[in-house]
Amino acid sequence: MLAMFFWAFVVGGLICVVGQLLLDVVKFPPAYAMSFLVVVGSVLSGLGLYEPLIDFAGAGATIPIMSFGNSLVNGAMQESQEHGIIGVLTGMFEVTSSGISAAIVFGFLGALLFNPKG
Fold it and tell me: Which residues are listed as membrane-spanning (predicted)?
């Protein structure tokens, strides 16, 4: 069990290091860095490489932003098998809608409860 926590920490940390290097060294704006990581997660998922990473690293691979790209691809693939080309769009929205809705609700509640500085 300790090894599972260790590898989750290492893999999640490496994903975050890549994101930080994109910001500091490559000088990507934050939106570009996040978009880049989502695209990398999507490509890895499309190639069948992200699921083995999740099996190996657990939360270290499912929590960072790259897993959003993985979710998009998985949803699109599942629904396209059932509904054809229209399933590509509906599958992406179906799989990710709960996470996006939660981010909106919790962001709104945070804005109500706390006074931002600046």
Answer: 6-23, 30-50, 85-114
